[in-house]
C-alpha cells in the first residue's frame, strides 16, 4: 500500500497523486481536513480503517491541520482540531520508524527548522555556505556587515518569509532586532539554480531574476531546465542522503566567478513552482510505485 498524507488540493500533493493514478496505483489518501484517529498502528477515518503495517511507501506533506481553513471555518472546528492535534504526532512517530520508504521522515526534515544548524551540515557535506550570523545584537550585526559588505536577512526557521537586503543603518529596524534573534548572511551575487533530488536522480532549474528573492510575486523571473556541471549532481545526491532525505529541493547559486554556494536543502519542496515540475512528480511517483507490494 502507498500512503499520501496532507492536503489533496495542494499542488505538489495533487501532482504526485495524479502520477500515481496514471501508473494504476490506488494509494491511501489521508486528508488532513477530515477527522482521523491513529491508535495501535491503525488509522481510522470516515468509517474505514487501515493497518499501517501494510504501508510500503509514503509521501508526506502535512500542514498544521488546526490552521487549515477547512478546519478553522468548520462548525465542527473544535472536534476537527482535537483530531488533528492527536493524529499528527502519532503519524509522525509512525513515519519515523516505519519499515517503509518514507518521503520524507519527519526527523530528517527537522534541520529545515534551524537553518543555521543545517548550514553547518551542508558545509560538512562539502558545499560552500555564505558566512552567517544569528543575533539579536545590533552591534554584532554592524560588525558582521563591516566585514562582509552587503548582508541579507532571512528566516532562521522553516517558516517561509521573504529574503531581503538588510539595512543595518536603519535605527528603527535595528531597535526591533533585540526582540528576536535573526539569521543574516553575506549577500552572494550570481544566478540561482534549484536542484530537486529524487532518490539518485536530479532535476535542475536555472532561475534568472532581478530580485534578491526570486520567489516574490512581483519579481521578473525566467526559468529554464539545465544540466549540472562537473560533479554537482553527485554532490547534491550525497547531500540529500547525508541529511536523510529521499526527496529534497537544494538551493544553489553560481557566482560570476564560477563558484558554487549552497543556501539550504528543503525537505518538502514545492516543486510545482519550477520548470520541469512534471518530471519531478513522475520521479517521485516512480519511487513510491517501485515499493508497492508485488502482485
TrEMBL record:
Q: Which GO terms describe its molecular function?
A: ATP binding; metal ion binding; ribosomal S6-glutamic acid ligase activity
The alphabetical list of record keywords is: ATP-binding, Nucleotide-binding
Q: Indicate the segments forming the ATP-grasp domain, all copies.
A: 119-293
Q: GO biological process annotations for this chain's record?
A: SOS response
**InterPro entries referenced in this protein's UniProt entry, alphabetically:** ATP-grasp
Q: Name one GO cellular component term.
A: cytoplasm
Output this protein's name. RimK domain-containing protein ATP-grasp
Biological source species: Actinomadura craniellae
Upper lineage is: Bacteria, Bacillati, Actinomycetota, Actinomycetes, Streptosporangiales
Amino acid at each position: 500500500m502507498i500512503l499520501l498524507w496532507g492536503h489533496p488540493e495542494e499542488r505538489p500533493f495533487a501532482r504526485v497523486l495524479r502520477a500515481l493514478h496514471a501508473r494504476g496505483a490506488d494509494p491511501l489518501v489521508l486528508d488532513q481536513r477530515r477527522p482521523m484517529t491513529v491508535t495501535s498502528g491503525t488509522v481510522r477515518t470516515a468509517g474505514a480503517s487501515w493497518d499501517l503495517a501494510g504501508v510500503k511507501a509514503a509521501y508526506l506533506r502535512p500542514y498544521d491541520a488546526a490552521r487549515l481553513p477547512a478546519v478553522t471555518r468548520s462548525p465542527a472546528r473544535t472536534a476537527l482540531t482535537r483530531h488533528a492535534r492527536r493524529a499528527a504526532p502519532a503519524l509522525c512517530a509512525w513515519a519515523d520508524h516505519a519499515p517503509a520508504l518514507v518521503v520524507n521522515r519527519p526527523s530528517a526534515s527537522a534541520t529545515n527548522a534551524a537553518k543555521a544548524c543545517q548550514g553547518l551540515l551542508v558545509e560538512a557535506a562539502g558545499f560552500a555556505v555564505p558566512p552567517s550570523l544569528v543575533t539579536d545584537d545590533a552591534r554584532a550585526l554592524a560588525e558582521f556587515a563591516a566585514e562582509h559588505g552587503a548582508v541579507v536577512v532571512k528566516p532562521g526557521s522553516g517558516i517561509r518569509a521573504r529574503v531581503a537586503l538588510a539595512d543595518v543603518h536603519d535605527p528603527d529596524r535595528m531597535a526591533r532586532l533585540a526582540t528576536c534573534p535573526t539569521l543574516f548572511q553575506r549577500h552572494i551575487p550570481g544566478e540561482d539554480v534549484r536542484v530537486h533530488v529524487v532518490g539518485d536522480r536530479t532535476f535542475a532549474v536555472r532561475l534568472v531574476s532581478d530580485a534578491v528573492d526570486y520567489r516574490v510575486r512581483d519579481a521578473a523571473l525566467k526559468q529554464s531546465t539545465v544540466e549540472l556541471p562537473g560533479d554537482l549532481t553527485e554532490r547534491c545526491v550525497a547531500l540529500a542522503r547525508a541529511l536523510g532525505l529521499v526527496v529534497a529541493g537544494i538551493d544553489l547559486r553560481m557566482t560570476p566567478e564560477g563558484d558554487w554556494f549552497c543556501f539550504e536543502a528543503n525537505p518538502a519542496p514545492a516543486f510545482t513552482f519550477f520548470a520541469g515540475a512534471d518530471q519531478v512528480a513522475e520521479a517521485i511517483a516512480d519511487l513510491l510505485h517501485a515499493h508497492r507490494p508485488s502482485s
